[in-house]
Design goal:
alpha+beta; 363 residues; 5-stranded antiparallel sheet
Length: 363
């Protein structure tokens, strides 16, 4: 009966937690309220307090339903009792309390870290994330050690028995361990942090990919592309390959827009129109200046290029498109022609009465 009361108490606590969590989430969504930081952690701690109430009810049930069995005797009862393994209810309860306590401590530490970093307005969000992840790993390792003690497992025997297993896993899972080590490098080195915009080659094409770092885990990193897709990238790809971090160093970068105009166009007028189109955009830095170059005499027209400075923004492609629209508008107004590709086709016709070949040219 006591076991049944304990099981029902914790099951009801779990169900009530899910119902409350779902109701609060539905209310916040309908009210367009987004909880984050301190309020989200406090709500998580409040939802976990139901399990503490379930534990209190379970202990009190022995005073109500006491048929010759005390709570101490219940804890000492070994439901698994063999020559090598002995597990009592006390061991199980200790393991549950350690896991629950680790989650509570982690939430409290997160709350403390957010409060400390909130006072330092110059601190980046990536730095706060690194401290939170490191605290998470340390708390989980400590909790695992306490679980071994709670189960009366000798740590020396555990480490000695797992040495051979770890060697075998190390040989078979080299890539996994490489990604895990790279994850720690990313967290501690700080060259790539959460919220950074990076550019790298995804290996599928020759074009580079621009993405935003969403989350850095032990083995993988979650990135968000410009299309809104979430990709999972191994950490080793970000530490062992060429990656350009747009969020580090100078925020300014030089960009190029190629333009082709027809032969015979007034190149001085074209240069002025290109500068006017670029400088009219609010995201272009006016103090850096704008350069127009005549790169080559191409097959179809004069190949020109305009060079300007702007922020390495997530929306740089949108800015380039807006500049192209302005260039097209100015070219139409001033009758500047962007030529079509041209080809000369020569057709040779032969006469029945003569063997001479006469060329005929068509555009």
């Amino acid at each position: 009966m006591n076991i049944l009361i304990i099981a029902v108490s914790f099951f009801l606590a779990y169900v009530v937690k899910k119902i409350i969590h779902r109701s609060v989430k539905r209310y916040l969504t309908s009210a367009n309220i987004h909880l984050e930081g301190r309020k989200a952690i406090l709500l998580r701690l409040l939802s976990q307090s139901g399990f503490a109430l379930a534990a209190y009810i379970s202990v009190k049930s022995f005073n109500i339903n006491n048929d010759g069995v005390t709570f101490r005797e219940f804890l000492d009862y070994h439901f698994i009792d063999t020559s090598k393994i002995r597990v009592s209810f006390e061991n199980v309860i200790l393991v549950i309390l350690i896991i629950f306590g680790a989650r509570v401590v982690l939430n409290v530490v997160r709350l403390f870290i957010q409060r400390r970093f909130k006072k330092q307005k110059t601190t980046e969000i990536g730095t706060e994330y690194v401290f939170t992840q490191v605290a998470k790993y340390i708390i989980n390792v400590i909790a695992f050690v306490f679980i071994l003690f709670a189960l009366d497992v000798d740590a020396k025997l555990f480490l000695g028995g797992s040495a051979a297993l770890l060697v075998g896993l190390g040989l078979g899972l080299q890539d996994v361990f490489k990604d895990m080590f790279s994850g720690f490098v990313l967290l501690f080195e700080g060259s790539i942090r959460v919220g950074d915009v990076v550019e790298f080659n995804d290996g599928k094409s020759s074009d580079s990919m621009v993405a935003k770092i969403i989350r850095i885990n032990v083995r993988t990193t979650q990135i968000e592309t410009r299309d809104g897709n979430i990709l999972i990238v191994p950490n080793a790809k970000l530490t062992q390959e060429y990656v350009e971090n747009w969020s580090h160093g100078s925020t300014l970068s030089r960009f190029r827009l190629p333009v082709t105009v027809a032969y015979g166009s007034d190149t001085h007028l074209v240069s002025e129109l290109l500068k006017q189109a670029v400088l009219s955009h609010p995201k272009v830095h006016k103090t850096k200046g704008v350069d127009v170059r005549l790169n080559d005499f191409g097959e179809n027209g004069l190949q020109m290029e305009i060079i300007f400075w702007a922020d390495q923004s997530w929306d740089i492609n949108i800015y380039k498109s807006e500049i192209r629209f302005e260039i097209d508008r100015l070219f139409r107004h001033y009758k500047i022609t962007i030529p079509y590709p041209q080809r000369d086709v020569r057709v040779f016709q032969s006469s029945d009465n003569s063997r001479d070949l006469r060329p005929k040219t068509e555009d």
